[in-house]
Amino acid sequence: MSILVVGSIALDTVETPSGKVVDSPGGSALYFSAAASFFAPVNMVGVVGEDFDFGVVNFLQDRQVDLQGLSVQAGKTFRWGGRYSKNLNFRKTLFTYLNVFENFDPAIPEPYRRSEYVFLANIDPELQLKVLDQVETPRLTVLDTMNFWISGRRTALEEVIRRVQVVILNDEEIREFTGENNLYRAARQLLALGPEAVVIKKGEHGAVLIRREGYFFCPAYPLDQVVDPTGAGDSFAGGFLGHLAQCRNLEERSMRQAVIYGCCVASFNVEDFSFRRLKEIDRADIDRRVQEFQKMITL
Ligand code: AMP
Fold it and tell me: Residue 217 Cα, ligand 1 centroid: separation in angstroms?
């Protein structure tokens, strides 16, 4: 039931109304792994430069994350900088320095190729296609992306969407990709390309799962203070895929529960900068909050 993730590993500089961090560990693969490893073993593939501090990811090994696929290359680690608006609903990318990530060519280690669950985290869609070519018959493939790739690599992105079962995007991204303002029509456009489900993340309004058969809505957890929304999407995906890998089926009920787990893990992640909260909490904390979610959404 192991999960393969291929994504970015970054040093992020993030400004929010609560403060600022410089060169703080981040990236889609790290956030995802920190989240998914509460549920199932994770095989992580990514690249860092010689300036990366491995001390910060050691906790991942204790949490069933295999780092054999982490490659260290001469040069600097990928860096991303972003600033959030006062209400945290908007994020401006201040810089993207690809550095060693620019020549990243994911070679999936032999034992990882049989991973049953595959998460194509936010990387160049051309590389996501290369990953799909290397894995053997996974039970579930899930895709994430961001505006950077939607505007720059549209054709390749469309091809990846045709080849995966679940697409996870935020409301802004799905509108940009489809050119459609109405989210339900936008989701149906994506479903028409082939995936079985689309999950639209709506920030402080939670997430919606859309399949041909219907909809499931999950609110965001009501937090008094959000410190840093960075990685909310990747930690959502970690909780979502982690739960599906753990329960080993893709039935409607499990998919719905997976959306709740996704919202729950993301809600912890945004309580502090980087993935500090995901280091502090344990599985029991997640399960307790999932119970609160269940109370929130039933009569
Ligand atoms: P999220 O908040 O879930 O969208 O994820 C934010 C993470 O994405 C940050 O930790 C960044 O390092 C990473 N990131 C930003 N831009 C890119 C990019 N172009 N490709 C891959 N990862 C990126």
Answer: 25
Residue span of the structural domain in which 45 resides: 3-296
* Helix extents (H) in 135-249: 147-152, 154-163, 171-178, 183-193, 232-247
Q: How far apart are the first and last CA of the chain?
A: 34
Ligand 1 pocket check for 49: Cβ under 6 Å? no
- CA-to-CA separations, 216 to 27, 167, 198, 264, in angstroms, rounded: 28, 15, 11, 15
Cα 89 to Cα 83: distance, rounded to the nearest angstrom: 11
Any atom of ligand 1 within 6 Å of the Cβ of 232: yes
CA distance 65 to 112: 12
pLDDT tens, N- to C-terminus, the chain (299 residues): 899 999 999 999 999 999 999 999 999 999 999 999 999 999 999 999 999 988 888 899 999 999 999 999 999 999 999 999 999 988 999 999 999 999 999 999 999 999 999 999 999 999 999 999 999 999 999 999 998 899 999 999 999 999 999 999 999 999 999 999 999 999 999 999 999 999 999 999 999 999 999 999 999 999 999 999 999 999 999 999 999 999 999 999 999 999 999 999 999 999 999 999 999 999 999 999 999 999 999 99
CATH number at residue 268: 3.40.1190.20
Whole-number Å distance, alpha carbon 296 to ligand 1 midpoint, is 30
| Angle made by CA atoms 148, 262, 286, in degrees to the nearest 5 | 135
Number of domains in the chain: 1
Around Cβ 23, how many Cβ atoms within 10 Å?
A: 15
- Tell which atom from ligand 1 comes closest to the C-alpha of 234: 3
User: Does ligand 1 come within 6 angstroms of the Cβ of 230?
Assistant: yes
Q: Of all atoms in ligand 1, which is nearest to the CA of residue 91?
A: 2
Kindly calculate the radius of gyration of the chain based on its CA atoms and give it in whole angstroms: 17
Nearest to 80 by CA among 171, 15, 34, 152: 15
